[in-house]
Write a structure and sequence with these properties.
The protein is mainly α. Helix content is about 45%, strand content about 10%. The longest helix has 28 residues.
Length: about 400
């Protein structure tokens, strides 16, 4: 019956096959069957000898060869870097902005200089063993809460600028914040957060800082330093005396201006890390546009605490009737630099075949705009924050 049913030239329906009913005794419903009780080796040996097994190796041999192949791929392709302690520390330090690291070092050095000055005076005047705290301690992991509170109160009253003048209230607060940041990030003393109101050990310190800040706000005539906005007239002066589409340096100055004005690039590190691939051109129902996708910046770190902070995604559309069209400006500049790599390049004096000046394939050491535009716009230095407030 089996030979007739599975004839290669005959189409057979499942209903035409004579299948005997299943015997209920095939499986013992009262006994639990464990897979380990089944002798798989005998079945495999029988299948290999009979030629029914499609491979010449047993399952064990195949597993060994697969493990060798996987191990070889892991060692050569997947895992090829062994991190050291220095690599881990470097990675941890990179999570903090460079300016924050610089300010922290400066303020901790201020503590050290003040402590050295006070300790020298104490030693020269003679140590008083009866005093609870005699010498100012360094900021280390061993410092205690009571000792820190004691000396921080005196630091707030005595610290001065290098010229001997008093710090403004906000600068004094930033000094204290840097000290706490150093204790937290470097010394790993999370219990010394003296800004936490739930910690009564530092109540005297908070009261002292609060009173000192109020006192400084009254005694010091605080003038806030801020960049002045550039008006339309000053922008016209820049286009008449600095910006040009026929000179590499002048073209780059114009690109820097509108990168600040239209795409919101403010900090120097945003310009230093700017890449050509962050700008793309396209066209939609509105018209031709240039699109900028922002990268990592001070406010967009991309870490576990900034998951909901999105990077900049800005479009600017072309205006053919405007001789200062930003799309044409950036197309001109990007046609003269490589398609990948740093955005800012050092201008060259040599010209291309079409008469345009080329740019050198090297990253600029510093932002090019400040020095060349110093004498323009009524002699005022043009910073990125000021360019951001341009009058359109």
């Amino acid at each position: 019956m089996a030979d007739a049913v599975f004839d290669e030239e005959t189409n057979v329906l499942l209903s035409q096959v004579d299948i005997e009913p299943v015997d209920a005794n095939w499986f013992d419903i009262e006994t639990d069957f464990v897979l380990s009780q089944f002798n798989l080796d005998n079945v495999l040996d029988m299948d290999v000898k009979s030629g029914n097994f499609p491979y010449s190796q047993t399952i064990g041999d195949l597993n060994v060869e697969a493990n060798k192949t996987e191990t070889g791929n892991c060692s050569s392709k997947r895992f090829n870097f062994e991190a050291k302690s220095s690599d881990v520390k470097k990675l941890q330090a990179s999570s903090t902005p460079l300016n924050t690291q610089k300010n922290t070092r400066w303020d901790v050095n201020t503590w050290d200089d003040w402590g050295k000055w006070r300790n020298d005076r104490t030693i020269s005047a003679g140590l008083k063993e009866s005093a609870p705290y005699v010498l100012v301690p360094p900021l280390t992991v061993d410092i205690g809460a009571a000792e820190l509170c004691h000396w921080m109160c005196r630091f707030i009253l005595e610290v001065r600028r290098q010229d001997g003048s008093e710090y403004p209230a906000e600068s004094l607060r930033q000094l204290c914040i840097s000290i706490w940041r150093y204790l937290r990030d470097t010394c790993r003393r999370y219990d010394l957060n003296f800004f936490d109101r739930s910690k009564p050990d530092f109540a005297d310190l908070r009261e002292c800082l609060d009173a000192r800040m109020k006192e400084l706000n009254v005694s010091i005539n605080k003038v806030k330093k801020q960049a002045k906005p550039i008006n339309r007239t000053e922008e016209d002066i820049l286009w008449s005396s600095v910006f040009s589409l026929n000179d590499a340096a002048c073209l780059q100055y114009a690109v820097y201006l509108y990168a600040c004005k239209l795409f919101g690039l403010r900090a120097a590190d945003e310009h230093a890390d700017l890449s050509v691939t962050q700008f793309t051109f396209g066209r939609d129902d509105v018209g031709q546009f240039i699109r900028y996708i922002g990268g990592r910046s001070k406010t967009v770190q991309g870490g576990i605490f900034h998951k909901k902070v999105l990077a900049k995604d800005i479009k600017q559309y072309a205006n053919d009737s405007n001789p200062r069209c930003v799309v044409n400006l950036f197309q001109k500049y990007l046609s003269l630099v490589p398609e990948d790599g740093p955005f800012y390049r050092r201008p060259l004096a040599t010209k291309t075949a079409d008469g345009d000046q080329n740019t050198q394939h090297r990253r600029l050491v510093s932002i090019p705009y400040r020095s060349s535009c110093r004498e323009c716009a009524k002699g005022q230095v043009l910073t990125a924050s000021r360019l951001d407030t341009l009058v359109k």
